Amino acid sequence: MQKEYDVVIAGSGPSGAAAAKGLVNDGLSVLVLEKKKLPRYKICSGIIFRKSQDITEEYFGEIPKSAYVTPELLKGVRFWSDSENYKDYPFTKDGCGAPNVWRSEYDYFLVKNSDAEIKDCHALTGFSDKGDCVVVKVHDVLNDKVIDIKCKYLISAEGGKSIIREKLDPEFEKGLKWFTAYQNYYEGSSNLDPDFYHGFLEPQYGEVYAWFSVKNGLQIFGTAAAKGKKIKPYLLKYTELLEKRFDLKRGKMVRKSGCIGNNMCPEGKFYLGKNNTLLVGEAAGFLNAFGEGISCALSTGLFAAEAISKGIKSNNNALELYTELTKRERKETTVSWRLGARLAGRDLMPI
Ligand SMILES: Cc1cc2nc3c(=O)[nH]c(=O)nc-3n(C[C@H](O)[C@H](O)[C@H](O)COP(=O)(O)OP(=O)(O)OC[C@H]3O[C@@H](n4cnc5c(N)ncnc54)[C@H](O)[C@@H]3O)c2cc1C
């Protein structure tokens, strides 16, 4: 690892990988920091929508077979308005369906193919803006050492919970509201069609919506509620529905996981950065309705790369360029929540 890079990126998810790819393509030196060991687990349904697939293929190549699970393609989402009635929304016009992947493998494929230098088990813990450069504090987790690294630009691709955003603007952070999502993975079976991703919209099963999908035979389901509110009663009721109505048989629990998200996206509260620090993907507030976030993570990562490359090469203001480049994506994200709320017949956020 060098002591100086053009750009340091915190986070190796799709937004970090896309930013890294764009910057490396433009000839800049890039370090990607990832606090976890790679390939890392990410709570997700792992559906790669058309836009994500197109960007992936254009910049990184074909999604590797090792990332796919069975069923390899999901036909669409089946939204249940109650336990008997549903409506299908196909993922693709041609009916082929969307790739169904493990995020650990897909994300690792992306970041490896960015050709940037990657340091896993290295967490960004702080930074200081010196005007003409940024000095980043990095915790080398395995050796328990703190390292200082200098860069021209810093990118936060940290996901919804961002240390960088917290430090840049504590007031903005104070105004955020949070929700908790929880997901179970069981060996077993059910009679829900595994070729669909299922969403249950009745508020008794969760405050956003409750979801179900199948990966390699695992029965994966979860729900969400406002942070501080009890999620367990929703999950119990939902599990009961799955067991009684859809004959869910639960074998061994293989994994349970949770995460938190915030109200930036549904309320159009984007935070794009300050001075020489840019935020991308969920860290900046890019997440579409029903929790689709890979497409906007990829596109905003690429926009940040373009803005920084132009900033460095032509002495332009990267943040202004990035703000301009993301205008359409911000509009689309905001519109998606409005459409989602219309489809669900209610506000989609518990907060
Ligand atoms: C239950 C659930 C299901 C979902 N299903 C889908 C789906 O099917 N399809 C879809 O498109 N989207 C889905 N999403 C949304 C999608 O997962 C996210 O929007 C997407 O991962 C955001 O990408 P990102 O790169 O911004 O952040 P992330 O993918 O969250 O990556 C952030 C990375 O940064 C690392 N990191 C954080 N802080 C630091 C630090 N200080 N230093 C170093 N590393 C750090 C983290 O360990 C992580 O690896 C789902 C989300 C949830 C919660």
TrEMBL record:
One Pfam family matching this protein: FAD_binding_3
From the Swiss-Prot or TrEMBL record, give the protein name.
Answer: 3-(3-hydroxy-phenyl)propionate/3-hydroxycinnamic acid hydroxylase
Give GO terms: molecular function aspect only: FAD binding
What InterPro entries would the database entry show? FAD-bd, FAD/NAD-bd_sf, Geranylgeranyl_reductase
- Provide the FAD-binding domain boundaries: 4-174
